[in-house]
Write a structure and sequence with these properties.
heterotrimer; B: about 625 residues; 2 domains; two-stranded antiparallel sheet; globular; C: 7 helices
Amino acid sequence: MSSLLNVTFPVLAHWMIVCLLSPFFLGVIARVKAFFSGKAGPPVLQPYFDLARLFRKKCVYSSTATWVFRAAPVIILAAMMALSLLVPFGICKAPVQFSGDILLAVYLLALGRFFMILAALDTGSSFEGMGASREAFFSCLSELALFMNFITLALLTRSISLARMIGADVPIVWGGMEPTLLLAVASLFIVLLAENRRIPVDDPETHLELTMIHEVMILDHSGVDLAYLLYASALKLFIFFGILVSIIVPVRTGYPVTDTAIFLGGMLGLAALVGIVESSMARLRLNRVRLLLLISFALAFFGLIVTLWRA
Amino acid sequence: MDKILFGSWPVPFGEFSLKLDPLSLVFLIAVTILAVCAGAYGFGYMRPYQGKKPLGVHAFFYLLLALVLVLIVTANNVILFLSAWELMTISTFFLIIFNDEQPPVRKAGFIYLIASHCATFFLFLMFFLMSRAAGSMAFDVMARTTFPPLLAGTIFLLSLAGFGVKAGFFPVHVWLPHAHPASPSHISALLSGIAIKMGVYGICRVLCIMKVLPVWCGYVLLMIGVVSGIMGVLYALGQHELKKLLAYHSIENIGIITLGLGAGLLGMSYQAPFLAVLGFGGGLLHVLNHSLFKSLLFLGAGSVIQETHTGEMDHMGGLAKALPLTGVLFLVGALSICGLPLFNGFISEFIIYFGLFQGLLGLPVHGVIICALGILSLGLMGALASACFCKVYGTVFLGKPRAGSSHSPEGMPERPTAQEGVCREGTSKWMLVPMAALAAACVLIGLVPRTVTGLTFLGAACMAHVDLATIQTEQVLVPLTMVIRVAFLFLALICVLITVRRLLLGRASVPIRETWGCGFAGVSSRFQYTSSSFARLIVELMKTVLLFRRHGGQVTGAFPEKTRMDSSVHDASEEMAYRPGLDFLNDVSKKLGHGRIRHTQVYLMYILLFLIFLLVWKMK
Amino acid sequence: MTLWIDVSCILVVFLALSVLATNRIVGMIKIFAVQSFILSFVPLFLHADAVSGRDITLSLVTMVLKAILVPAILFWQIRHISMRSEIKPLIGLGTSILFGAVLIAVAFWVSLSLRLPGKLLSSLVLPCSLATMLLGFMTMVTRTRAITQVLGYMVIENGIFLFALSLFDAMPVLIEMGILLDIFVAVLIMAIVLNHINEEFERTGGSAGRSKTGETV
């Protein structure tokens, strides 16, 4: 019984932290953007209020939709929560770690995306089909860049477990491999923007435009379902932040409080960076997004070459 | 269970004998499961044809095919193997041309026959070289022979040419996309599920016999896997016809299998037995998995076609309401083929990935580069495949029915309305139960992979000529166990989330409204994204490779007139290599025929001269 | 100090790739300026222990010439001839990026077998300078405008400069200055010549005589 408790407790604690913290960073990004456009902006806790309101609301379903539409939000949120178990956040070690877990991570992302697209197509709306088509296209490119980076990181750290590859347990030493890491971080940052559909790729603020990707796919979701989807995207952002911060800030002092402070500082800094990027750039034209992702791929490719060269 | 030799009996060229080793066993299991499931499905599927077509002949060739498939995987003798091989080609041909009154079907059948026979030529050559070097026609004697590297390389290339056509490697896959849509669905399932795997079996057998191959062979095999995989899935994305799309996906999956085999071969060349076992094991497991989920998908496609009388995806839609059970089963197949966790596709791809990562961290630099390429292309294939199956499932089963003409591609007669053994959704139980069994097998392997990994690793060890006990397969099985644990956790999470949702929503009935048309009132089901428009972005990016052609669709003027647009993707190898080549051959032979020879006597003279030549040659 | 040279090398190659992946002339010039700016810091990292006056001079001269003067001339040029954007590269930008990635790989592969007389400061310098040259060349190949040809040429020159810097100690500074002067003169001449050509035609190349519609923005 106690062994079961030993296994379940870290998992539950991890989920608790992840679920509690993740919407916060959406609020931070919104705040930074508001600051740059000279507005007061919503309170940092606004995403929590939004979620709470949506959780109280009822759902409306389309007459076209089938069970896939209802199942999708649940599956997507569950996939993101399962994925969060593989990612370490600061001093919270990843509760599930094994050799090759990056594959599970990538394919859990793919599973979520699969159902997202199916739910969008299930409504029979042409707008949502449009978003679904774009999501499928861009995710192919970003997945390519993601794999390229993982190959480089695997070569650098001689490991294929996510937590080790991003230097959470054994911090990556920047000295000596910085050019490669520089490239990997830049490439992963573009992947982060693309996977979370942030501004140069997609505009999370607008609704109902022909140009959108993620927002248009959730047009027909409402109430609890929409809350699940919003939560899932907050989790996804949090997970990507966690991965990037682990690589960028390999500082481990050994004191839990300091380490947590450093990690949270890194997360806030990254959120601010995303906010700055969003306020300083316009959404790219769709055929430009392709180029952005290709550049991310080229960066990762370059990183791999340099790694091989130095090996 | 090393080798079980059956009794042998004397015939002109050596002796026929059968052998069952773990490698054969993997294929044998796939053959038996599929033959039974597809047969049962065919029983229901063929019912509308009763009294209109000679079903007895069809059944005869089906059973013959099942028998020779078993013979192929257990043959221990070249002659037996080749006879069974040819019988397979012929019986498959008759099964494909079931609807022989339609010209495209006949054409598909002939393409298949010609392609297969051209390939068999290489096989004759290969087996000739092999048996000459070994001095025997028996596989087990050959396996004990050591071949010089040059000969081994030649044999390897010949086997790629000979078996590659059957397996559907990318440039020589031409027969595949023609034969699959033309044949009845359970035959497509059998063709794609197991007949093309016979090519893979042949290559595996050759690898197993050769033992030591030059290092470049591994690279060649891996590159073939990469090219077939990526091209297969890209072409699949461009297709409009359901079964043709699935046929191209078979090419992709053969690519994945070959990638695994290539990684294994690299492991053998570089003396990395763990990599060898992982590569071969992953490849073999994918053979089994692919035969399960691909036949499931083809059977599902059969039910869809029976319902809609068309294979054109852009005319379908909303079938999940008409065929709810088929819809769920098809979804299981789609999730499996995309390699998503919880299903069997993930397990085999995980093992192959794992092997490639081992190669990445352990091989010298050329190996590292090719392994990185393998990982990348496997990732790309996964992403493209899930895009493709989103497209298939989204357009066929979800959304609203798109209005379209309903004509039958297979000449399917209208289904009689009331029939015994027909369930709620109108599909016969004979058709649903085999699909359910296949889907259950997919989920079983996905959740309890140890049921089959033991066997496939044994097969892999047999191919790599190592003792499985010396290989720490636990290194990959333990991560797999962790994957399964996360998968169960994931399922538990889904249950919890559903409960939370129930609690939050309460008991009140959920309002059902029309899909929000963004303020536009006159929405019709024709507005929906079709399969072609869904895949357009990817296909247009790749239009130079895919020969993407688009006609019409230009809207001009303030009051544009009615216009139409069609787009299609053409097979580059067919359009750019085979057709010009064929035309050239036609020209040459026409010239020869007209210019030189008119009389039969001249032919007879040629034969006489050749006979004398042979006699003189043998005299020396 | 090798560390900073490595980082600069990587950035220079990346910026060369960005030049290839941009189709707006203003953007290209800016990226080139940044590339030259980074390059101008490399002399300071050459001698780990003590930065000599020679290094500082070289750095300053490079910065003034390449990061300020040349871009300024180019900006003046495009304002003068009123053409702000590249209409269309010969091959798509996406394809250019992929080709660029391949070229980088080729550069690294080729440098495996290159043996140099002197000792290099960092093993990355040789492949990176080679990659920069190839990417610059690719830019010249894929673009139609005269000004983009100049930019491609300047990127090639940056690659050569990076390579020359690594052999700095073996080379007298006079040659260095000579190189810099060379470029300066080259750009100046090109600017003047282009200016005159542009009064006649809007672009160089075989298609100069064809229709001029749609060329001016």
